[in-house]
Design brief:
The complex is a heterodimer. Chain A is an alpha/beta fold. Helix content of chain A is about 30%, strand content about 20%. In chain A, the strands form 2 sheets. In chain A, strands 6-7-8-3-9-10-12-11 form an 8-stranded mixed sheet, with helices on both faces. In chain A, strands 2-1-4-5 form a 4-stranded antiparallel sheet. The model of chain A has no long low-confidence stretch (mean pLDDT about 90). Chain A is globular and about 70 Å long. In chain A, helix 3 packs across helix 4 and helix 4 crosses helix 5. By secondary structure, chain B is mainly α. Chain B has a single domain, classed as MetI-like fold. Chain B is built from 11 helices and no strands. Chain B is elongated and about 75 Å long. The mean pLDDT of chain B is about 85. The chains are: A alpha/beta, B mainly alpha. Chains A and B meet through helix 2, helix 3 and helix 5 of A and helix 8 and helix 9 of B.
């Protein structure tokens, strides 16, 4: 098997909270993404999925763990090496209104990364900015306009064009469609899929929307309280979840037909504070299958056929 | 932007007043009917008349001419001290806010110490220590405004650095210097500009106050605060000596305040037309 494009092991990021407590936002995450593959990261709000995504790109400096991208050690990269890595892995943001500098024209925003990385300058950079816009479905003529003249969906396209400017191999997308209307979501998802196919882009796709992940990604990692609790191919993970949390998460998705609604247990209670995670398995206070061992020991990772979970009492 | 300011009557009045003072300062040599320093003892304390429109002072100097030339001192001191405070204070605030952490805490506490000293007292101490000349005056007034500008620049930087476009800049491998100069600073300029206009009014007042107590520009160079002080000796016989420079100060301060308020309204994003 060839080495994955991105390999993350034991990624940890703790924040200092009020009164000196440590908030364990990301607490030992293992992930890997193959070239041209889309990996989804799902979980409730506050489970650390966005922090994990940012830590992979070192937009937030991780506290521990290893990140390897195209064979290079991301955490050890400094200066020019880090700049070279940044060219290969880019980010798409959730809020299309905050992700563009309101004072710069679209053309300048898109040409800037090209000039900074000395890939093109002046008229050539301006030319490429137009090509990028056309690639994301906007006319090149909008180069001279400013962000406030565009709708959310158009801005998201511009944000994607900016991420593509440096010809990356990996896009980390943090909830790229959750701020958009449903009809616009579909357009952006289709655009991302087309880019994945045409450019051979790999994705880390962070979302709380299981339907979107199911459609867009081939593999998925389910996060709970800073840890990956289950990981595997999208179809298997959602059809035959092994971790009770994944199943509850899946069954929490509203179903239109009342006769087809799942009758099983519901996900109750709130996500515990990552500043004081429960001992043993983090999920035990909300888990219908929890027993004594779950309260004492963190479950080990077991994997079969590329589908793994961390649970003492996995579902079959 | 310009149209928005002028469409607001109060702001337009302010702009007009400031323009008036600016023109007076620029064209003082052509506008002034007399030399501002030439003494004419026979005309001492003469009331406003045809040849001395605003009267003459205790040395027989023309008050109008002195007010016109005095505008230069007021504007030079106000503009250069505010400019210095904007550059130094703005840089301190923006960098400190952008870097954040313990350094930010330390710098801002130092600024709070500076902020706790009343500006007139601080200015007084500095001028008293360094001696009254225009450079020291500018330095003293700038010093009192550094801390407020550091605060004004820092607050929006704190929110801007959380914005996704700043994060995008980091993801794209831009240097911190580039992010700060190209992506953060242009977005705080409006707020700083508004405050700079309002602070200029404060600088005019501080300059006048320091000149009034004799710590301003040395006589015989005309300055509005100094003229008020000199006029005080004859306030009962020749009230115009203090009245007219006082009015000049009032008009400039009023003009700057109105203009500053108008600028603030014009740059308020909630009022901006998309």
């Amino acid at each position: 098997m060839t080495a994955p494009l991105l390999q993350v092991q034991g990624l940890v990021k703790h924040f200092a909270g009020r009164g000196g407590v440590r908030v364990r936002a990301v607490d030992g995450v293992d992930l890997d993404v193959a070239a041209a593959e889309a990996l989804g990261i799902v979980g409730e709000s506050g489970c650390g999925k966005s922090t994990a995504a940012r830590a992979m790109l070192r937009l937030i400096e991780p506290d521990a763990g290893s990140i390897r991208f195209e064979g290079a050690d991301v955490r050890a990269a400094r200066g020019a090496a880090l700049t070279a890595l940044r060219r290969r892995m880019q980010m798409v943001f959730q809020d299309p209104y905050a992700s563009l500098n309101p004072r710069r024209s679209i053309g300048r925003t898109l040409a800037e990364p090209l000039t900074v990385h000395r890939l093109a300058r002046g008229a050539a950079a301006w030319e490429q900015a137009g090509a990028l816009l056309e690639e994301v479905g906007l006319p090149a003529a909008v180069r001279s306009r400013y962000p406030h003249e565009f709708s959310g969906g158009q801005r998201q396209r511009i944000g994607i064009a900016r991420a593509l400017a440096l010809r990356p191999a990996l896009l980390v997308a943090d909830e790229p469609v959750s701020a958009l209307d449903v009809s616009v979501q579909a357009q952006i998802l289709l655009l991302l899929r087309r880019l994945q196919q045409e450019r051979g882009l790999a994705f880390v796709f962070v979302s709380h929307d299981l339907a979107v992940v199911r459609w867009f990604c081939s593999r998925v990692a389910v996060m709970y309280l800073g840890r990956v609790v289950e990981r595997g191919p999208v179809a298997t993970v959602f059809r035959n979840p092994r971790h009770p949390y994944t199943r509850l998460l899946r069954d929490a998705v509203p179903v239109a037909d009342p006769h087809r609604r799942a009758a099983g247990p519901r996900l109750v209670g709130d996500l515990p504070s990552p500043a004081a995670p429960p001992p043993g398995c983090h999920f035990h206070p909300r888990c219908p299958r929890a027993t004594a061992i779950c309260r004492e020991q963190a479950p080990a990772w077991t994997e079969a056929g590329g589908h793994g979970a961390a649970c003492h009492h996995p579902l079959d | 932007m310009m149209r928005r300011i002028l469409s607001n009557p109060a702001a337009a009045t302010g702009a007009l007043l400031c323009l008036l003072v600016l023109l007076a300062a620029l064209f003082a040599p052509w506008l002034a009917p007399h030399d501002p320093i030439d003494q004419s003892i026979v005309d001492r304390l003469s009331p406003p008349s045809g040849s001395y429109l605003l009267g003459a002072d205790a040395y027989g100097r023309d008050v109008l001419s002195r007010i016109l030339y005095g505008a230069r001192i007021s504007l030079i001191v106000a503009v250069s001290s505010t400019a210095a405070a904007v550059v130094v204070g703005g840089a301190i605030g923006a960098v400190s806010g952008y870097i954040g952490g313990r350094l930010d805490l330390l710098v801002m506490q130092a600024m709070d110490v500076l902020l706790a000293l009343p500006s007139l007292i601080l200015g007084l101490v500095v001028v008293a220590l360094l001696g009254p000349d225009i450079g020291n005056l500018v330095f003293a007034i700038a010093l009192t405004a550094v801390a407020p500008f550091a605060r004004i620049a820092r607050a929006p930087v704190l929110s801007l650095k959380q914005r996704a476009f700043v994060e995008a800049g980091r993801a794209l491998g831009f240097s911190h210097v580039r992010i700060l100069l190209v992506h953060v600073l242009p977005n705080i300029l409006d707020e700083v500009l508004v405050m700079a206009t309002l602070w200029m009014a404060a600088a005019v007042r501080t300059e006048a106050a320091l000149s009034f107590i004799g710590l301003g520009v040395r006589p015989p160079t005309p300055s509005w605060g100094g003229m008020m002080r000199e006029g005080f000796d004859n306030i009962l016989d020749a009230p115009w000596l203090s009245l007219f420079p006082g009015l000049a100060i009032l008009l400039l301060v009023l003009g700057l305040n109105l203009l500053g308020d108008g600028l603030r309204d014009a740059t308020d994003p909630r009022l901006a037309v998309q």
